[in-house]
Design goal:
46% of the residues lie in helices and 8% in strands. By secondary structure, the protein is an alpha+beta fold. The chain has one domain: Cytochrome p450. The chain is globular and about 65 Å long. The chain binds protoporphyrin IX containing FE. The site of protoporphyrin IX containing FE (HEM) has 24 residues, from helix 11 and helix 15.
Length: 474
């Protein structure tokens, strides 16, 4: 597969040195940090700030100061105080206990796909529902409201949304979460929002903080993983040797390493980690002055040959665990154990259950997400033919943690099934409509508008949203 020209230009810059000045949409010229080692050093440095409201912060689009989405754009100690309150459900052991339930969701969605008409849009039928169903269950958000929260999430992460549109979408989601907090206060359940209401009662957390945290977790919990599922599938279909390795393996370690390699190779959060220097910092012989912006281009960092030999090759057998697809430092992704679990289950189930899965259109016809801060595809039309490969007929396999083989009542968090959810959909959809009526959708919101088709795979082809001119000399 060809490496896109944008990547080649940035890789050339990377070879010249670890830092380069770039010009942003507003004329500012922050530093683009291109190399893996310097990116990690700066992301772990307490002298850099993630606070979007500080002067010099290199935002990718016009910002309204009050549009902060919770602790992801805050510094310690406030960041640590809030993050600590939602850390426990994402601990590896707690997440691992969800494996059978997530496997069940994945299996049922595949059953539905197989029973339905072809071709099918994998994004709509599978990639979006898997993480949305999981995060809804964890948070205690009704899945029947998914159109509402998915549309508003899209507006928030859309680069060309106006500050007003972004603020409106944030307001709708915050209002929606606030209503849910009311419901949880009145009648708590076994979910994260209910646990946040306990902290509201003790005065540890304000209503506004709890609602903003809910917005962050809801957006981060579905949008990123959904893009990894669809884009990862496309990358594998374009690399059939790697797909065959993954599909035919019984080795769980290979599945784990495939997930890490796809995270490295695709690096969907292609806007870079944005920060501003609080003090003068010297790094790699260069002085970064206090108040200067920094964009850690983690996608190019994940292709730094010093960290990953032959970086443009997708090789699911390589050890890619040290990638920076989840960032690095205090803001490193909170949900990474959950994302990993979901991707391991999806990648080890989908291609095995549908071994003849293939694109139902040309690669050039796929609409890529050039306009958002998370890269991916808007649609992925796929089809398959029905007869199984001989090998599959002879060697049926229960994926690890499958609900048919490993279900351990009592130990497993009881997620309602996808079908159960659909049966309950009319009633809760009505409830959702009431909420939406109270917080009308933003005019000109993201909706289902599709951008121009065609683009690049892997995601690093469109690395730095908001960098309007290429790298310039410092
Ligand atoms: C493949 C899927 C995912 C990718 C690639 C991803 C990527 C990232 C990255 C790069 C960051 C760091 C942002 C920064 O340093 O500025 C981050 C932070 C975060 N992610 Fe994820 N993420 C994924 C899935 C999830 C999931 C499933 C959740 C669950 C709710 C989640 C919740 C968060 C939160 C809360 C933060 C903020 C952490 C902090 O500021 O302390 N993410 N993610």
């Amino acid at each position: 597969m060809n490496v896109p020209s944008g990547v080649l230009a940035l890789r050339a810059k990377q070879q010249e040195g670890p830092l380069a000045r770039v010009r942003l949409w507003d004329g500012s010229t922050p530093w683009l940090v291109t190399r893996y080692a310097e990116q990690r050093a700066l992301l772990a440095d307490p002298r850099v700030s993630a606070d979007i409201s500080r002067p010099g912060y290199p935002s990718s689009a016009p910002v309204n100061g009050s549009s902060t989405v919770s602790f992801i754009l805050m510094d310690d100690p406030e960041h640590a105080r809030l993050r600590r309150m939602v850390t426990a459900p994402f601990a590896i052991k707690r997440v691992e206990a969800l494996r059978p339930a997530v496997q069940k969701i994945v299996d049922e969605l595949i059953d539905d796909m197989l029973a339905g008409p072809k071709p099918v849009d994998l994004v709509e039928a599978f990639a979006l529902p898997v993480p949305s169903l999981v995060i809804c269950e964890l948070l205690g958000v009704p899945y029947s409201d998914h159109d509402f929260f998915q549309d508003n999430s899209k507006t928030i992460i859309k680069r060309d949304a106006s500050p007003e549109q972004r603020m409106a979408a944030l307001g709708h989601l915050a209002g929606y979460l606030d209503n849910l907090l009311d419901e949880k206060l009145a009648s708590p359940g076994d979910d994260m929002l209910s646990r946040l209401t306990e902290r509201i009662k003790t005065g540890e957390l304000s209503r506004r903080e709890a609602a903003q945290m809910g917005v962050l977790l809801l957006i981060a919990g579905h949008e990123t993983t959904a893009n990894m599922i669809a884009l990862g599938t496309l990358a594998l279909l374009e690399n059939p040797d790697q797909l065959a390795l993954l599909r035919d393996t019984d080795d769980e370690k290979l599945v784990v390493s495939a997930v890490e390699e796809l995270l490295r190779y695709l690096h969907i959060t292609h806007n870079g980690r944005r920060r501003v220097a609080l003090e003068d910092i010297e790094i790699a012989g260069q002085l970064i002055r206090a108040g200067e912006g920094l964009i850690m281009a983690n996608d190019i960092g994940n292709r730094d040959p010093d960290a990953f030999p032959d970086p443009d090759r997708l090789d699911i057998r390589r050890d890619a665990r040290h990638h920076v697809a989840f960032g690095f430092g205090v803001h490193q992704c909170l949900g990474q154990p959950l994302a990993r679990l979901e991707l391991q289950i999806v990648y080890s189930t989908l291609y095995r259950r549908i071994p003849t899965l293939r694109l139902a259109t040309d690669l050039e016809q796929i609409p890529f997400k050039h306009d958002g801060s998370v890269y991916g595809v808007y649609e992925l039309p796929v089809t398959w033919w029905l007869f199984p490969r001989t090998a599959d007929r002879q060697r049926p396999r229960q994926p690890r943690g499958s609900h048919e083989s490993d279900h351990r009542p009592g130990q497993v968090r009881r997620f309602r099934t996808v079908r159960g959810r659909r049966r309950g959909r009319v009633r809760s959809a009505r409830r959702g409509r009431h909420r939406r009526a109270a917080q009308p959708r933003p005019a000109g919101g993201a909706g289902r508008r599709r951008p121009a088709r065609g683009g690049g795979l892997p995601g690093a082809g469109h690395p730095h949203r908001g960098v309007t001119s290429g790298p310039i000399q410092s």
